[in-house]
Amino acid sequence: MISNTAIGSTSISPDVTAKILVTEIFESILEITGKIFPSVAANVQANGYYPVEKTWTDSQEVIISDIRLPRVLLAALVGAALSTAGCAMQGLLKNPMADPYIIGMSSGAALGASIAFVLLLPVQLLSFVGAVITIFVVYNISKIGGKVPVDTLLLSGIAVGSLLAALTSLIIFISHSPHQIIFWLMGGLWTASWDKVKITSVMIIFGVLILYRFAWSLNVMLLGEEQAQYLGINIEQVKRYVLVLSALVTAAAVSVSGIIGFVGLIIPHIMRIIVGPDHRILFPASTLMGAVFLVLCDTFSRTIIDSVELPVGIVTAMFGAPFFIYLLRKRRQSLYA
């Protein structure tokens, strides 16, 4: 994260970046300490006890602290959210090709964002609400006699997602300025800010940590729903919680970044090949690798072309698809060798 924060159109060395970040962290801790122990904080400020000597300009500090660091942190949060939700959906649906968008959440978020752009309302709020409403609609449509069959859930998600995608296309067609909607649908982190990091981090971290609690239940459900019931797992309750939590973290991510594909699909699949199917290990591995992957892709998207930023959704597909095909081919050769 330090190296990717240092990279940009303005050249700032990694060591200077690290010093700025250390100073920012120190000042944040000092501010918190000042509220609890005012005398200690006042003594530190009076004597100038700072961990590093300032050797950078004010403009460099603004670039790192207010522009690049929020974007890198937001990329890490979005990547972690999408990959964790993808891991949960793949385990729940017993399908390694599943991703967070498979049951229409992306279409709901896209429709909410499109309406927000047309009516000049908060985009982040409406895209989040659209994604959450979609998952509840799909869940209730799929419910049969108090149970939610996996195949019915998938088909309902595809049907609802197609309908919402058609409505989004209609809004784009009749909109006087469709470029904003199209750019949002491509996925990007251009509008990253500390406010978005703070709001998004609460929902994503909460959702991811609670999802970790269902790792053992998802492991047991891989044996089959009947076997899981014999072992005391409340299947329908696990489905409900995993769906809601996956929707929460996905909606929180999509609301600030737009539609970023492949992260929730390929990262859990790659981690499953590397660490195995045990969700107690697979969940944190997917979270970490998803964050790393999207930070790298976002850095590439804003530096590959001078004075132009590519949508990060394009970069994730360009990098993710070939690598995913390579892994599948390699795995196939090892299975049939």
CATH architecture of the largest domain: Orthogonal Bundle
Largest sheet: none
Give average pLDDT, whole number.
82
Q: Count of helices?
A: 15
Given the helix and strand composition, which structural class is it? Answer: mainly alpha
Number of domains: 2
Task: Name the descriptors.
ABC transporter involved in vitamin B12 uptake, BtuC; 15 helices; mainly alpha; 337 residues
Describe this structure as you would to a colleague.
The protein is mostly helical. It has two domains: 1-56, no CATH class; 71-336, ABC transporter involved in vitamin B12 uptake, BtuC (Orthogonal Bundle), CATH 1.10.3470. It has helices spanning 2-6, 14-36, 38-47, 58-93, 105-119, 123-142, 150-174, 179-186, 194-212, 215-221, 225-230, 235-257, 263-275, 279-303, 312-336. Helix 4 (58-93) packs antiparallel against helix 12 (235-257). It is globular and about 70 Å long. The relative contact order is 0.14. The mean pLDDT is 82.
Summary of the model, kept short:
With 337 residues, this protein is an all-alpha fold. The protein has helices spanning 2-6, 14-36, 38-47, 58-93, 105-119, 123-142, 150-174, 179-186, 194-212, 215-221, 225-230, 235-257, 263-275, 279-303, 312-336.
Give the helices and strands, then pairings.
Blueprint: H1 2-6, H2 14-36, H3 38-47, H4 58-93, H5 105-119, H6 123-142, H7 150-174, H8 179-186, H9 194-212, H10 215-221, H11 225-230, H12 235-257, H13 263-275, H14 279-303, H15 312-336
